[in-house]
Amino acid sequence: MGTDPIPTPSIEELQDDPMADDSTSIFRRRELLRPQHVPQKDRIVGRDREIETVEALLKPAAFGDPPESGFLFGKTGTGKSLVAKHVTGRARGIAQMQGTDLTAAYVDCDQYNTETRAARKMAFEVRDAVDPDRYIPKDGVGASRYYDALWDGDGLLHDSDSLIVILDEIDKLGDDTAEILSKLSRSEEAGKTGCYISVVAISNKTDYTDAPDERVASSFQDDPIIFPPYDANQLQAILERRRDAFEDDVLEAGVIELASALAARDHGDARRALDILRSAGKLAEKDDSERVTEDHVRKADEYSDLNRSIQVIKNGTPHSRYALYALAYLTKSKLTDSFSTGEVYDTYCVVADVVAGESLTHQRVLDLMKKWTLPEITESRHTGGGKGQGSYRTHRLLHDPDVVMSACLESADDQRNVLNALSESSI
């Protein structure tokens, strides 16, 4: 037997270990502040109508009848995934009470962003719930092999009455969206399975219209379910219902009100509200403070802003990140903090040629740079340029250039090669 790479000390060795003392924690139930946590219904705020609508879609499955499929739209942090998981979990519990065989699968399409990856994740979720010992290959096969595992012959769904599939951030599937929806929504009609299948498709893009094409539109309810942003009062109620994440009397007066007000600025994002409050608690622990104060909340808000910006950058398209890297490099290496599109473009071409072997046109890069202003990564303005210079657009970075450069190019090799190329250029 090989040596354990993570050795575990004996109980005797851990007796006086400060890590073993949980009494210093100001948290009681940290999980209540995690965005993945699915709370009981009495902790869910401002989503009664949406819950009732999703209940109407899925309730038939709990009684052995065919459920409906539906689309859930809304900005990040408006409770779409929470409601979908909450109602699906209740439907599965009621099905057990009724003696109905209801299976459920959750697929995060941001992580499983092709039809094959999504189908594999779905097959493994069903396998783990229905027949954990069933062999399914993890790689080397296409999407059809995973569909076959579900409904071919004695497939995993052979004895199931219904399957509810939650496809979260379905827009991340791109061109594969219609294909996977078609396979799922028409499997029963095509004689693939006798199991009723419901698809709950979720998108953060409220203008997302590419999802259902003519092959699948008839399988979904006519009107999508729209999740509006939370207002400050609703965010405050959400945090109040998670107050027991902390020990008694830990939160100073005004902490929850401030956290909810700060989150309300960002389109009523409940995830951000929870993140601010959780981070404030962590900062209080770091300071060895017995109370979470408004100052901790303000510092947590600043930290949360940085994290949000990094995630926005990492989710950008490759060439938009190369252009942003160019602006960050110029900001770090020059004496000024504002640069024309032409200056950014010249630097971008070096970055893009090194990383991708090709570069886009000047106009396309200008369009990409304009998009960074919406999430407040950059600031852009049109200037007259002075006598003889004509008018042009300038760009200014609103964050630390080192942080932005690291987010734009995560590969250490790419960063090293780009910096070498830029140092050898005349820029």
Strand content: 5-15%
Radius of gyration: 26 Å
Helix share bin? 40-55%
- For the termini, the CA-CA separation is 57 Å
> How many extended strands?
8
Can you list the strand order of the major beta sheet?
2-3-4-1-5
* CATH class division of the largest domain: Alpha Beta
Q: Could you state the order of secondary-structure elements as H and E?
A: HEHEHHEHEEHHHHHEHHEEHH
| Number of discrete domains | 3
Q: Can you name the CATH architecture of the largest domain?
A: 3-Layer(aba) Sandwich
The main sheet comes to:
5 strands, parallel
Ranges where pLDDT stays below 50 over 5 or more residues in a row are none
Structural class: alpha/beta
Number of helical stretches of at least 4 residues:
14
Mean pLDDT: 88
The CATH H-level homologous superfamily of the largest domain = P-loop containing nucleotide triphosphate hydrolases
Keywords: ATP-binding, DNA replication, Nucleotide-binding
Protein name: ORC1-type DNA replication protein
Family: Belongs to the CDC6/cdc18 family.
Domain AAA+ ATPase: 66-231
